[in-house]
Specification:
Helix content: 10-25%
Distance between the termini: 40 Å
Radius of gyration: 31 Å
Largest sheet: 6 strands, mixed
Shape: elongated
Bound molecules: adenosine monophosphate, magnesium ion
Structural class: alpha+beta
Strand order of the largest sheet: 7-4-6-5-9-8
Number of strands: 27
Amino acid sequence: MITVEEALTTILARFKPLPAERVPLREAWGRVLAADVVAREAIPPFDNSAMDGYAVRLADCVGATEAHPKALRVLGEAPAGRTSGLVVTPGTAVRIMTGAPIPEGADAVVMREETREAPERVEILVEPEPAEHIRRQGEDVARGSTVFEAGELLNPAALGVLASIGVAEVEVVRRPRVALLATGDELVPIEAELAAGQIHDSTGPALEALLTRLGAVPVPLGVARDDRAELVAKVQEATQYDLLLTTGGVSVGDHDLVKAVLGELGEMAFWKVNMQPGKPLAFGAVGQTPVLGLPGNPVSSLVAFELFVRPAVRRLQGHARVQRPRVAVTLTHALEKRMERRQFVRAWVHVEEGRYVACSTGPQGSHVLTSVARGNALLDLPAGAHRFEAGAQVPALLFEEGEAYAGRDLDR
Ligand code: AMP
Ligand code: MG
């Protein structure tokens, strides 16, 4: 049996970022830049005031105090959104609003709270520092500088930065299109009435949602019967996509044809990974398309998704960090491990007095999907040890934070 890390290393070695595409800025959130962005404009684009107050000449305000204020004649107002055209000459000041261009001649702004206002006159009550409350042109981003580099993630604030320098379109890594193929004679779509012995394809919709949440484009190919010709046709259809995920048929059952078909059509390795759940896993390629054959049990396939598919998809998307961060969590109750193998336990993690605490979400059988739905983390219990006491610290993979899981949220 190979370890989780060995499997992941082998998988990731076969993935690299997809080619670039140009998209409108509004669609670029969460994407990875495929090219450097050079600023054609500066931020701020002009010297402007950081305060509502008075644009003054330092020389006029030397020694100003509450007891000995400096009186200046007010020439007029500098509003945001246009140049006032006013020039601050010795003995004068201009009333200025936040964001307004600094009038010629001024070299500091005194905030309104540090003045006494009278009609057409203002008394300055403090001596300003040079350039005080002036936001300099290019202070945040200089014109001609590289604002973001290829490989950087476009988070919401980055979209704001790009908008501020007038970038309406960006080159980002293309979204991966991921084909999903469920296999099994017993599986029917959600809409179908169940006949004896049948079950609904439950993994398909869950994997679709996981892919969508990741920013990939899921392409459901439906359910293939455990039938050689049907499997061959579906797998061949999938070679036009960036990745194929199959579920089921990679174990040792009589009808586990996926193994045989994938092995025939492509270059595939079949692994037993030293973990529970999710032991059987297939990996390889058919044509140019990498294929990950996930186990059939819904829980196993979702755990395998977290451990192997998500990092592979993130690599296709160009992300530098492909794995979830691991955090130490404290168990609220003792946990027994059923087997020797490394076990991933579905858990609910929340913050108590500034630290992460975790409780199991219940029965951990590979067919019990509700305990995945009610969780927000996987505890990573190492091979060997069999019992973990309440209060013990174990590593955990946290799913997206701040999200509600099946009716709960992090405040509960
Ligand atoms: P298999 O590896 O094909 O033998 O599948 C293992 C178990 O997972 C069996 O109980 C299957 O019925 C179940 N299973 C396989 N695929 C799915 C699916 N897409 N949705 C729900 N259960 C599935
Ligand atoms: Mg099957």
